[in-house]
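testing teh design pipeline on a random one, pls ignore if ur not involved
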């Protein structure tokens, strides 16, 4: 809460990379700000960030950097090639028309105040100027970054705040980030109501799990649930002491985020719950019966779910609304598949050939050339991994 001023927070902008604890899962999001398209979800997120920049007087980009930045070489972990424990700007005093932005002066004021609170000398912050605006910069890739875009497009002060990956606790990284943020608040006349940060370790309390859409069970952390092979589970609620950044993963199937997704259980597994990339709890899933190694398509018709096997045909009527929820292929992770209903093209999103979870009006399936009968009646759902077709099923439209 703030007593004075306004603050826009964009939490977990690159959530997929956070879950996997890996930068650039879909390419480096901080190298997409020179793009003008919205070809995928990362580009769409970048466009939202750009819009929020246009409403701002200052932009701060929070990161972890390797090692510890130093103007001079001290050792392999503390030198000019490292980024940790640094306030980074693309220029020192850029001029835009009649306005001069005193970025280095602002950063050094913040650093002086922050370092007065940093008890360990090796953890103190330093100013790093990448000189991105100059033709001979050592960091030309920064011209694709968020800070460069904010600075050169909206002419607002923009800084990267980098804690070090070498710090031994998340709590310490959060503390240093907040030291810097609060000092920028003071520079900009923003007054927090409660500047102190209370950090409680995240934990799972319980899961609510639906079984075959007929019964719901409450399972506490470290508990277990017993189901039959082939039962479809859906995690419909995660109770934790945090509301944001929570994901659940049914191990060995689905994706890294299986919340609210129907998952067909084919063997004993577990449900791992994370906050960001930290495991905060799990539930064991014990299965009864022998797994059946078949391909299955889970399809929703007018809100009701049904299953068909590979090469089978689902009959629907014009006017129905269908959704391909997921496809299960033995020994293949669902996230490695592409599921394409031939003859369907999304109206607004990019047509990338992935049609799962799109709500499809059957009346719009009228491209005869994509139908297997040539009459606009029977359309294939083709499942591929890379360039290889693994299986298919069919939608037949009954007038």
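output:
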């Amino acid at each position: 809460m703030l007593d004075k001023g306004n603050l826009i927070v964009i939490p977990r902008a690159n959530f997929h990379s956070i879950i996997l604890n890996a930068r650039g899962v879909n390419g480096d999001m901080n190298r997409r700000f020179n793009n003008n398209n919205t070809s995928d979800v990362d580009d769409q997120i970048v466009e939202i960030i750009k819009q929020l920049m246009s409403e701002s007087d200052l932009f701060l980009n929070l990161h972890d950097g390797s090692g510890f930045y130093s103007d001079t070489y001290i050792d392999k972990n503390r030198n000019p090639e490292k980024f940790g424990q640094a306030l980074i700007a693309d220029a020192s005093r850029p001029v835009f028309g009649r306005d001069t932005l005193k970025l280095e002066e602002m950063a050094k004021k913040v650093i002086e105040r922050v370092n007065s609170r940093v008890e360990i000398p090796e953890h103190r912050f330093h100013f790093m100027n990448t000189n991105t605006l100059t033709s001979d910069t050592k960091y030309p890739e920064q011209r694709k970054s968020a800070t460069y875009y904010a600075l050169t497009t909206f002419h607002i002060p923009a800084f990267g705040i980098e804690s070090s990956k070498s710090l031994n606790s998340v709590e310490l990284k959060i503390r240093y980030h907040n030291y810097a943020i609060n000092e920028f608040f003071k520079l900009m006349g923003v007054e927090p109501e409660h500047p102190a940060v209370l950090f409680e370790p995240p934990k799972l309390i319980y899961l609510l799990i639906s079984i075959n859409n007929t019964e719901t069970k409450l399972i506490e952390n470290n508990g277990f649930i017993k189901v039959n092979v082939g039962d479809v589970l859906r995690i419909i609620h995660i109770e934790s002491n945090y509301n944001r950044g929570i994901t659940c993963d049914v191990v060995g199937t689905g994706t890294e985020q299986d919340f609210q997704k129907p998952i067909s259980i084919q063997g004993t597994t577990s449900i791992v719950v994370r906050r960001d990339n930290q495991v905060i709890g799990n539930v064991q899933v014990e299965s009864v019966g022998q797994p059946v190694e078949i391909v299955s398509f889970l399809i929703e018709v007018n809100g009701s779910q049904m299953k068909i096997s590979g090469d089978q045909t689902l009959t629907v009527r014009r006017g129905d609304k269908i959704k391909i929820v997921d496809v299960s292929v033995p020994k293949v992770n669902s996230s490695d598949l592409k599921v394409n209903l031939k003859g369907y093209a999304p109206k607004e999103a990019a047509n990338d050939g992935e049609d799962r979870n799109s709500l499809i009006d059957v009346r719009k399936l009228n491209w005869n050339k994509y139908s297997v009968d040539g009459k606009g009646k029977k359309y294939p759902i083709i499942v591929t991994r890379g360039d290889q077709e693994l299986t298919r099923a069919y939608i037949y439209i009954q007038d």
